[in-house]
UniProtKB/TrEMBL annotation:
Subcellular location field: Bacterial flagellum basal body; Cell membrane
NCBIfam families for this protein: fliG
Listed name of the protein: Flagellar motor switch protein FliG
Domain Flagellar motor switch protein FliG N-terminal: 14-116
GO biological process, one term: chemotaxis
Record's keyword terms, sorted: Bacterial flagellum, Cell membrane, Cell projection, Chemotaxis, Cilium, Flagellar rotation, Flagellum, Membrane
UniProt topology in membrane: Peripheral membrane protein
Flagellar motor switch protein FliG C-terminal domain sequence ranges: 228-334
Keyword Glycosyltransferase part of the UniProt annotation: no
Amino acid sequence: MTDILEADPPKKRLDGIKKAAILMISLGPETSAQIMKQLPDAYIQKVSYEIANMDHVSREDREAIVNEYLEMSQAREYILDGGFDYAKNLLNKALGTSRAKEVIDMLNQIQLRERPFNIARKADPQQLTNLLLGEQPQTVALILCYMQPDKAAQILVNFPPEKQADIAERIGTITNTSPAIIERIEQVIESKFSTYIENDTENVGGVSTLVEILNQVGRTTEKAIVADLEQKQPELAEEVKASLFTFEDIVSLQKSDVQKVLREVDHDALVLALKGVSDELRDFIYDNLSSRAVETLKEDMQYLGPARLSAVEEAQQSVVTVIRRLDEHGEIYIMRGDQDAIIE
């Protein structure tokens, strides 16, 4: 079941958690409840949140997700019966060459995540090289067999020439290895690698990460999270709010920067984004457009009619996304918290 949470076929481009939520909705509450019990807590929370915030599922999406789940389940059974070649042959007959390839590719990705030496595949090549330089050639060869070819090549070239040949020969002659040996080596490598990098930590999370996430969610969710932080961790909430850019914050931009943003924003998105905003904000936008553009914008807004809050928030978020992109590329400047102002 967790496969459908992670695999993402090329054509659908749906988030894995959304796909799982759609599947749960399609299967009904009783069946979904039984499936939920078998999922890790982290997935249950994510899927439950997605279900709670999903107010509409198109028939096309529902059918596509259910069909994908059935195809994946069927393909797994074929693999268990006779391996990938057997599964590929049957899937080609059942689904056609193109769709069969998509399913096989997804299963290959899933299998890759389940293969031994996962920590090695995720590790930085240079760090892993430093660790493996002291290992026996047969150990290095075994690990490289389970790694991505390009990363394995990066590691192999760092060994002395004579050791490269020894490792290459062993890779070429490995046919099978006891699972117990693989597991034992994997445990040793993971233990050594965790010790090796214990002082080489990676910066993850924190206010900047939270702000990046909040700048991508809908305004309703953003406001609810910030309000909750204000109750539980007021100092963190203030820090987040100082860095968080909202659609209304567009008035804090320089006039020239606003004009750059508006040139990049889709016209229809801007029409929808201005639905229900204050007169001051709307006038601010008008002041940064040509008279002809303002006339067109007002006309389109007049004929827009009622709009869903979620659609308006999505349009506003698309404007914020443009602003963040231009800021990251240094094309405009966003004031954040106590940062110094720009002197022109």
